[in-house]
Amino acid sequence: MKLQLVRHATLLLDYGGMRILVDPMLSEAGAMSAIQNSPEPRPNPLVPLPLPVEQILDGVQLVLVTHTHRDHWDDAAIQLVPKDLPLLCQPEDLQKMEAVHFANASAVHDVKHWSHICITRTPAQHGSGEIARAMAPSSGYVLSTAGEPTLYLTGDTIWYDQVADTIKHHQPEVIVVNAGAAQFLHGDPITMTAGDVVRVCRAAPQAG
Predict the structure, then answer these.
(1) Is residue 190 within 8 Å of residue 158, measured between CB atoms?
(2) CATH of the domain at 85
């Protein structure tokens, strides 16, 4: 397995001989307006892509999207990702993908077998209380295949019981969390805090 952070939540994953692009946000730095009600509003993305889009997309065989907030799936991704690539998403987002002509989009309801890789959709809670309800739905994924470590991509979530349950059930060997304690002007964090990351580490001492 080879995992490369591109920017924000965008990842390039070489897994079981396949190349997977996770949560592509491909806009140029500052191309999108600031997030409303954020403590330090600035145009997004905050930093440029570290390599050309053509290089990011080169060889990609699958696109995996946790949810369609614009910092995980932006207009640039809609325009630049080839429409014939296989694309997996949560069921609530499938109609959106089909509306922008991704011909090979399909939903991961529970478990999806793509090629020889097993992809399990996992729960995610993108905040607390009313904010969580407003930000929903969001998902994570567990990937597994012979000869590779079981990988848990938490997606945008805080630590809560179902993250603990996912770790206990799947025993992932590698976990990627979206941390940083992002939050709006009011309300609790919508992604994992440092304390949440510690809880993940304690729940999965075997994981990297």
Answers:
(1) yes
(2) 3.60.15.10
For residue 133 the two structure tokens come to 């309800």
Categorise residue 127: left if φ over 0, alpha if ψ from -120 to 50, beta otherwise: left
pLDDT band at 95 (very low <50, low <70, confident <90, very high): very high
Q: What is the pLDDT of residue 40?
A: 87
Residue 208 has pLDDT above 90, yes or no: no
Residue 49: inside a domain: yes
The widest CA-to-CA distance across the chain, in whole angstroms, is: 45
Residue 109: beta bridge partners? none
CB 12 within 8 A of CB 4: yes
pLDDT per residue as tens digits for the range 113-165: 999 999 999 999 999 999 999 999 999 999 999 999 999 999 999 999 999 99
CA within 13 Å, CB half, 149: 17
Provide the residue type at 58 as one letter.
D
- Whether residue 208 lies inside any domain: the answer is no
